[in-house]
Amino acid sequence: MAGIPFVKDINFSYGVPDIVAPGVRRVIADNPGPFTFTGSGTYIIGEGDVAVIDPGPNRDDHLEAILAALEVERVSHILITHTHSDHCGLARKFADATGAPVFGFSGHPVRKKQDDAPALDEGADYSFAPDALIGDGAVIKGSNWCIEAVHTPGHLSNHLCFALPEQKALFTGDHMMGWATTVVAPPDGDMSDYMNSLDKLLARDDEIYFPTHGAPIENPRRFVRAVKTHRLMRDAQIIDQIKKGRTTIKEIVPAMYADVDPRLHKAAALNVFAHLIRLVQSGTITHNGEPRLDGEYSLS
User: Fold this and answer.
1) The whole model's pTM is what?
2) Is 74 a member of any domain?
3) Which candidate, 89, 180, 224, 287, has a CA 20 to 30 Å from the CA of 8?
4) Is 13 contained in some domain?
5) In-domain check, residue 156
6) If 0-12 CB within 10 Å is exposed, 13-18 middle and 19+ buried, where does residue 274 land?
């Protein structure tokens, strides 16, 4: 992954609002981990009349920190990038505290935990229900700001980014993270959708990304191109592993991710599975029946 210009440095204090751009503040929750990096960042857009993007995990200390950052300001919109708990777990409590409606693409796409991908960190919020549904191109306006929803399926099918056009800024949730690549975990995570969403970002003119986890990403098109190249490289590596006789995910992951923290191998296996589904769909490799996490794969 040396070709991706990762941004690992981030200066912050938990619970303290930082001004990261004109009219944009960020409060980071104290939920660091192998999949959340330093924690989940909640963004406050505007002044006086504000929107809040990703209230974050269901933690009372984070709720108190966001409310303290708002002082006497009025929250008019709560915007959710997707239905993983580290992004939306606090949404209902925050809505109750502020009286603001919650906007999102949908509830969690997989309704039952037993049918979903294995949980990474906090997992999904199966109870999440937005007050209002928004899709691609939806425009949300406040008294001093205007935000546009950008549908970016891949990490999850209900993933949204939020654009602040006047600053050419994009709040990217988990679709694009500056510190690491994004986990794409079937059954709802879809690598083909993720690649198409990368192309969608490349067609935009954003000048900075604000991910939920980690520092802002400057020169975002270069970053997206590097991530796309990396994903295509993973396709090629998986094909090479199958050529070498490693035909199961259990065999492929240790060989491909030998230099990666073993704590991340579970996520790596899900990514490999997503790549394998994409390769089966393209006819590059085959599987007897529907692709499975424990299946055996071969070249076409």
Assistant:
1) 0.96
2) yes
3) 89
4) no
5) yes
6) buried
